[in-house]
Amino acid sequence: MAEQEASGLQVLLSTLQNSRNKDVILNILSVLTDLLSLGTGRRIHYVISKGGSEALLQALTTAARTEPPDHSTLLPLLRLLARVGQRDRKFGLKVQKAEATDIILSLARRNLGHHLHLTHCLWVLRVCASNVTTGTTLGINGAMELLFKVITPYSKRHVRTVRAAIEALAALLKSKSNSRRAVTRGYLDGLLRLYQDWHHNDVSNNYIYIRKGLLLCLKHITNVQLGRETFLGCRGMEILFTTVQDCLSCKNLDPIITIVTQILRKCYPKEPLPVATARSFYSFPLPGNAKAEPPCEGSEGDYESDGEEEAEKNLDNEDVESKEEDYDLETDVNKLRSRPVLDRPEEELGQYEAMCPELSHNFQEFESESEEEKSFEDRTESLPSAPSRFIPSAVSVKHPNQSVTEMGPDPGEKDFQVPLQSWTKKEKSRWDQTDEKRDIAEAARDADSCEEEDPARITLRPLPKDTAWDKVLDDVRRLIQPDDVIGRTVFDLDEPSHSSPAAPGCLTFFSKFESGNLRKAIQVREFEYDLIMNADVNSNQHHQWFYFEVRDMKLAVPYRFNVINCEKFNSQFNYGMQLVMYSVKEALQGRPRWLRAGHDICYYKNHYRCSAAVGEGVRGRCYYTLAFSIKFPHKDDVCYLAYHYPYTYSTMMSHLDILEQNRNPKKVYWGQQTLCQTLGGNPCPLLTITAMPDSKKRDDLEQFCNRPYVFLMARVHPGESNASWVMKGTLEFLVSSDPIADLLRKCFIFKIIPMLNPDGVINGNHRCSLSGDDLNRQWLTPSSQLHPTIYHAKGLLCYLRSIGRAPLVFCDYHGHSQKKNVFLYGCSIKETLWQAGCMVDTAVITEDVGYRTLPKILDKVAPAFVMNSCSFLVEKSRESTARVVVWKEVGVLRSYTMESTYCGCSHGLYKGLQLGTQELEEMGSKFCLGLLILHLKSLPCSKNVMAQAALLLDLEEEITDRTQRSCSNSCLETDDEPPCAEELDYDTDSCSDGEGDFSELDQEIQECLSWVEGQTEDEGATMGQTCSSKALRGLYMSSQPGSNSTALPLSPTALGVYSGFESSPA
Ligand SMILES: [Zn+2]
């Protein structure tokens, strides 16, 4: 059957190619037209696969040679070519092979006086030009000159032809050589004038598609440097900026505004970032002979040369990315399976025995302590019994002056003071109101304490398009109306004299505090400031995290801030994420908390570039602007603004003290040691948490020692403060009096490094350590000198393995800036090979699928966690991360990176909400619950543990309950982001703008048919000469209902129709 169908179509196509009989050809064209005008694109693709394009092109060549040209054949042929060609990816090549470019061009030339025929030729021309090479050939052969004869100033006559010409020109201008040729011939200026003319005369917005088409021409032509320069010279910025103002209030002009803002952003003259150097203000002399200048990695930003080649790179970014991802997969089975040799002498591991005192502890002090414990137990009993929300009531100041790194040109200036950590409101009420200055400072440092926010109030609102337009146009106004711009530097780490005293009426900025990183603030207009973040120490990049103080604000005024040196190509700020703010006056009034803040937030590529001199080898790097507006809650307040809820090193140290003091020492074994000193001389804490043995009896002590290990870490990337909040939730749960925590402690020994990169956190880095290295890319061969925390964390893990105690679970807590939800990355050989398309011999490779159990459990018990977002692929570019190295070298099957969003959730209970610290902490405690369930599922358990667990967790019920809930919310939704990404078009060089939309041209062609039927008057005058409407009506008769062809079955499988062709009058 299928063969018959195919042969039917093939007979039809070959007859079309070879027949000279006009009636036969007309009949075939009519059948094809009917076929393809019904149903979906699948039919067209089928026809293409059977050589449809070639047959039609061949028929065109033949028909065009006939003298005089027979338009009754040519017109349906051209329509079919336009419809088929736009869906044929190789159409351009086929046109060249059939040597049809000249034929189409000369057909168009001959029909300059006949608009209907000309329109048909232009459609095909446009489709041919969608292939850049063919477009270039057409350009060389004079296609643009031809089109410019057709494109007229505003006129109601022949608008279809004008539209077809403009759209064909836009397609031609995708070729850079065409764009250059067009600029040289002065067409750019012409296009601008035409656009102005249509804009001014089309007051009723009847010809939006013509205006849009002209803008598309301008958009493509300005992809070349020469085009941008000429555009500026022709006052293009002013013209588009002025005309678009009339469009902003009109609802249906969105497509126009979108393209105009894209062109304006792209053509805005590039400027170097207004700083003396992109290199961090702070530098740190490295020990030994280590090189102080780490190579610049370009992996995260996107780069653009100033030359001509910048634009035509990725027309389809997503496609390229997914290919790159697959290419990145490790496909070498031997590499995946082999365990590398130890990176250090075996003897060196001995030193880590001291970090496992629990293994040799004899608990001699057990008896003597019991009295003290008794009294303690009384105390703890009276604590509020909400264990997972354990909020210690005591304030601890055990580290009053933590020695922290001092550096920079003026040592001592970056005077880090340790926040006096307080976790309760009561503390604030004790403040001495007379000493307001002290209070403010204290409250500010206390800013790390977070009250819960009601998630219902922090709903994710998708970015309205006009927000982005307003911000971009405001930026362009700086160029158009330079007199408006104040341009006064009001804060500058490099030039302290700028910073004080502030000019009247102007905000005062400050960032020399722990985790602060503002480098420079420039007042642009009265209520608008450009902000520049400092690069990571010893580096010139990684700008993302920000944290600074601002004061002297007015009430009820929306201030606009632009963080102008962001690097990532997109941000959750475009999908509803807000930054966070802490108001000292609010704190003094009893509301000490960080809140999500900011409105009209958007994120887009700006006109700043990293120049060669400033960027030290990363010339041409693009920057992005994070723009947001804020109304401050009080006049003359002191406020703190940050990328995300801060969590400083000092906060953590205080928190550890509080946890230790408030635990029940009879039940909770708590060990706090120093893993090592960091490069900056800060101690990196290592915690051991488990249950105290039930007694000194041998059995109990043995059980104590033999508990499997769980190894957790966080904050290797200092900007990922969300990871610390998750870790806080884990720690609080682990030491809490919750009976589940009690049971969990009896099951495991927890080794925890809550902050792997204290130096980075203290200095306000986003990604690196003081050496300028990403510490999570050093795990293969960490240097004991440069990466001490990684060296020793790995050492401890290797030691555990060497004594046969490799952890059951390893998890490194991170934050993910591009995605929503919380999820795990793990490692699987088979999934990696499958994904890479390698043949997997399951007999040779056996793999324990136990790595999937924990994420599956978390999907059910943790509301923010989404299994679908998890991935278990081993990428080459990740071979030196903790996850991959611990999996491969330490042999931990369940080795994970846990990624938590900065933003919110797209699935489950928190769908559509931004996460606050409470939800992040909840994730940390649910992770613990997940570990307990994992233990019960995967390990042999004592009857005792099982019985207790059964009492505590009504497991089955809980799990089914959660499953239902998460299913009902998640099954339908698979999309990660709302669709506004395309609207904003982050990459202004991109040529994808919906102009190649099939349905639009199809619609044009369809409309043309009915137009031919009805014959409008003004077109009729020209048409009547060569082609009567009667003839046309006869020609299209077969496409009308009731004609013989409607008998063809219209089954959705579509191809069944071809069997009928055998009997068609061929
Ligand atoms: Zn990270």
Main attributes of the structure:
1066 residues; globular; 19 strands; 7-stranded mixed β-sheet; single chain; alpha+beta; binds zinc ion
Please sum up the structure shown.
The chain is an alpha+beta fold and 1066 residues long.
Protein described:
The protein has 1066 residues and is of the alpha+beta class. Helix 13 packs antiparallel against helix 14 (208-221), helix 14 runs parallel beside helix 17 (254-267) and helix 33 (853-861) packs across helix 37 (955-970). It is globular and about 110 Å long. Mean pLDDT is 80; it is low at 292-322, 368-453, 959-996 and 1015-1066. Bound molecules: zinc ion. Zinc ion (ZN) binds next to strand 17.
Layout of secondary structure:
Blueprint: H1 2-18, H2 22-37, H3 41-49, H4 52-65, H5 71-85, H6 91-97, H7 101-110, H8 115-129, H9 132-140, H10 143-150, H11 159-172, H12 176-184, H13 187-201, H14 208-221, H15 225-233, H16 236-247, H17 254-267, E1 271-272, H18 317-327, H19 333-337, H20 366-381, H21 425-429, H22 436-445, H23 465-480, E2 488-492, E3 508-510, E4 518-525, E5 528-533, E6 547-551, E7 558-566, E8 579-583, H24 584-588, E9 594-597, E10 599-609, H25 612-615, E11 622-631, E12 638-642, H26 649-662, E13 668-677, E14 683-691, H27 698-706, E15 709-714, H28 721-735, H29 739-747, E16 749-753, H30 758-762, H31 788-802, E17 809-816, E18 822-825, H32 829-835, H33 853-861, H34 882-889, E19 894-901, H35 917-938, H36 943-952, H37 955-970, H38 980-984, H39 998-1014, H40 1017-1023, H41 1029-1036
Parallel strand pairs: 1-10, 5-7, 15-16, 15-17, 17-19
Antiparallel strand pairs: 2-4, 3-6, 4-5, 6-12, 7-11, 8-9, 8-12, 10-11, 13-14, 14-16, 18-19
Helix pairs in contact: 1-2, 1-4, 2-5, 4-5, 5-8, 6-9, 7-8, 8-11, 9-12, 10-11, 11-14, 13-14, 13-16, 14-17, 16-17, 17-23, 26-28, 28-35, 29-35, 29-36, 33-35, 33-37
Zinc ion (ZN) binds at residues 717, 720, 814-815.
